[in-house]
Amino acid sequence: MVAPLSSQVSEDTEVMEENIELAGDQMKRKEAPEEGSRDSGEGYRFSNWSPLRWFRMLSEEMHWSFVLGVITVYGISQGMGGSISRVATDYYWKDFQMVQPSAAQVYQGITSIPWIIKPLWGLLTDVLPMAGYRRRPYFILSGLLGILSMLTLSLHSKLHVIFALLAMTTGSAGVAIADVTVDACVAQNSINHPSLAADMQSLCGLSSSIGRLLGFSISGLLVHAIGSQGVLGLLSIPSVLVLSVGIMLKEMHIPNFAYREVFQTLQQAIRTMRTTLQCPYVWRPCVYMYTSLALSLNIEEGMFYWYTDKKSGPSFSQETIGFIFSIGSVGSLLGVLLYQNILKDYPFCGLLFWSQLISGIAGMLDLVMVLRLNLKCGLPDYFFAVIDESVSRMVGQFKWMPLLVLSSKLCPPGIEGTFFALLMSIDNVGLLTSSWAGGLLLHVLKVSRTEFSNLWAAILIRNIMRIVPLVLLFLVPKSDQNSTLLPADMLDGDDNMEVLQEDDDYIQDIELVSLVNKTGHQSGRSYAKIQEQL
């Protein structure tokens, strides 16, 4: 999402001079491109073999603080911190709070609620600056929330389960706010530097993948060495780094912001999103995406408890659990690469059919392991668990990546960022439903901390439910992933401007694309520029 500028900003001489200077710098770069620069939309030739020069180029084009922010949020906070948190949280609920797997599954869903309201965070970063800045205060707020929540979990030895859940949800909110804010920075720079949009997405994906791999690799060792509480305390370090991004990020100062227009702008954004959701081209795929995710019941906590059980399960150690998850992240990365190089040109309908079907079949690996059939075939638990996790994560990417592409193509011009966050919230509601339904299933089948005799039935039901969404596949467009899905009238920049702006006072559009216009007076050209990118 790109942030709107108020009409007062465009009249501020100092801001105009800064904008003109930035525009002049960009023109100089275009006139005298450095070695290895882009040519006719092609990627940087050196980006594949010289990462340092690639990072330096991105830092020079968009300032080093932006690159640092992406690496910090995607790589350290979400990637490494998220993977370490995954293992530490599982052990915290199991060994410290002593809760049942069904309860842990429900708690996992509750902590995801801040991600469901991502459009709210997005709108706030767009329309409600603090102290004259749109991004920096929200990075600082995110860091503070993460620091306070993680230290609370780490230092309180007798924390009640309700307060522990509240602290974890607060920490999740901090990560979600940072995610939305850095997404806004990426979107803003994608509009200001359209030729570098792919490089920025590569930076985000690369940072996240490497961070997850490193995080899972050391998560088990950390839990074994200092316990789950100690690890949760260490997770305050990524929050400190996010806070530092808020201090160092280079961002234009916006004086004399018209706060009286905030409520009107929020109302206009909500009306526009509601109108878009009423379009059959939009709501039909949304129904499928929600159903597909909601019916893929999440029983990971039951599997985790069984993994670590000494009697019924294989009794994996903390180090083993971390290693299994790290190999799973490699499978996830492999899935992304296979999708990018082989599957991205296939039609939505066909790709989602096979990915949904294979997802149900791949889930049978859990059933083989729980029934101990792998041992009868001579395959040790450790080896089979690695295969199971890798295949599951890879197939999960086959299913998730086309859903992301589909979501991006359902966003109308002018409110792309906010509407994409809304679609991601719908997906997160599906994941929340999946987690709570999985917890209910574990409870009904009486899967507990020590009783796993019915875990096989939970796995079988989950696998069958994964295939059920195939009956709704007719809701998904049959076009390929490179086609335009929205009707022409919704893609008309002028029509969207009429919807988004009822008078000249709404020149500060919802997505802040006016930032592209360095003098702040050419919002119509901003929409045209977005239209060209679409």
UniProtKB/TrEMBL annotation:
Residues 26-42 have a biased composition (Basic and acidic residues). It is found in: Membrane. Its main location: membrane. Pfam families: BT1. The chain crosses the membrane at residues 138-155, 161-182, 203-225, 231-249, 320-339, 351-371. Belongs to the major facilitator superfamily. Folate-biopterin transporter (TC 2.A.71) family. This is Folate-biopterin transporter 2. It comes from Ensete ventricosum.
